[in-house]
Amino acid sequence: MDRFVLGDTDFAVDRSESSVRTAPDGTVTIEVWGTDEALDAQPDTGRYAWAVHPPRLYLTEVPVAWSGAVATVRFDDGMADRYDIGLYLHEHGDVIGELTLDPARSLRIRGSAQVNGRTEPVDVEVGLPLPPG
Q: What is the per-residue pLDDT across 21-33, written as a single tens digit (0 to 9) for each?
């Protein structure tokens, strides 16, 4: 079920490096890392052949709306200016989209990210819980 798709490339999910934390104030902090193995498997002529490390998607202390045990938030350019939300792949790029988090089951982030001046679709799904970090 785990995937970290950027454009048409699935970087998989490094479960040992990724984390999901919820805070009593209703915010979430999320880091999802792609895997070195998926990066190394990319063809030399692939879109991300230049990358020397996998991408990292992050949201830091972002307020979410809770409905029972499920949290959701839409993040746009305005939120990116106020909160630490982005994708790192040799440079930081803005991310816009939607997050759905059920801490007992899964994390889903869909939207788009800026990568080297291009807008790329991003689709992340992670089965939860993750191992303790």
A: 999 999 999 999 9
Can you read off the two tokens belonging to residue 16?
């040992």
How much is the average pLDDT of 61-88?
94
Amino acid at residue number 64: V
CA angle, residues 9, 118, 109, in degrees to nearest 5: 55
Phi/psi-derived region of residue 26, left when phi > 0, alpha when psi is between -120 and 50, beta in every other case: left
Asked if residues 113 and 2 have their Cβ atoms less than 8 Å apart, the reply is: no
Confidence of residue 133 (pLDDT cuts 50, 70, 90): low
Q: Among the residues of the chain, which ranges form H helices? A: 36-40, 77-82
What is the dihedral angle through the alpha carbons of 45, 46, 51, 55, rounded to the nearest 10 degrees?
Answer: 180
